[in-house]
Specification:
Layout: H1 9-19, E1 25-26, H2 27-34, H3 38-50, E2 54-58, E3 69-73, H4 75-84
Antiparallel strand pairs: 1-3, 2-3
Helix pairs in contact: 1-4
Length: 101
C-alpha cells in the first residue's frame, strides 16, 4: 500500500482550521484564519473534498444574500490532519560537503 504524502503547508493550515471545531465553516472564514488567498484556498478545499477529508454543502438562502458553500472536516480528515501535525521529516539545510573536492 502506498504511503500517503505529507500535505503542503497550505493544506495543513486548512486542515488545522477545520479540525479546530466540528461545525460548518465557509471559505471566507477559512481564508481569514489561514491567511490564504482564494486562488489557493478553494483548490485546496476541492482536493480535500475529492479525497474524502471534508464534506461540503450550500448554506440556506437568506433573502438578498448569495448562498455560501460550507465545509466541514470528516473523520478521515481528522486522522489525516493528526498525521499532518506530526513531526516533519528531517531535511538537511544545506548540501553535504564533498571531502577532497
Amino acid at each position: 500500500m502506498a504511503r500517503e504524502r505529507r500535505p503542503s503547508r497550505q493544506t495543513a493550515a486548512v486542515l488545522a482550521a477545520l479540525a479546530a471545531g466540528p461545525g460548518w465553516r465557509h471559505g471566507y472564514d477559512l481564508a481569514r484564519e489561514t491567511g490564504l488567498a482564494s486562488g489557493t484556498l478553494y483548490p485546496v478545499l476541492m482536493r480535500l473534498e475529492e479525497r474524502g477529508y471534508l464534506e461540503s454543502r450550500w448554506s440556506e438562502g437568506i433573502e438578498g444574500r448569495p448562498r455560501r458553500h460550507l465545509y466541514r472536516i470528516t473523520a478521515a480528515g481528522l486522522r489525516y490532519a493528526a498525521g499532518a501535525a506530526g513531526p516533519a521529516r528531517h531535511r538537511p539545510a544545506t548540501r553535504p560537503r564533498l571531502e577532497g573536492a
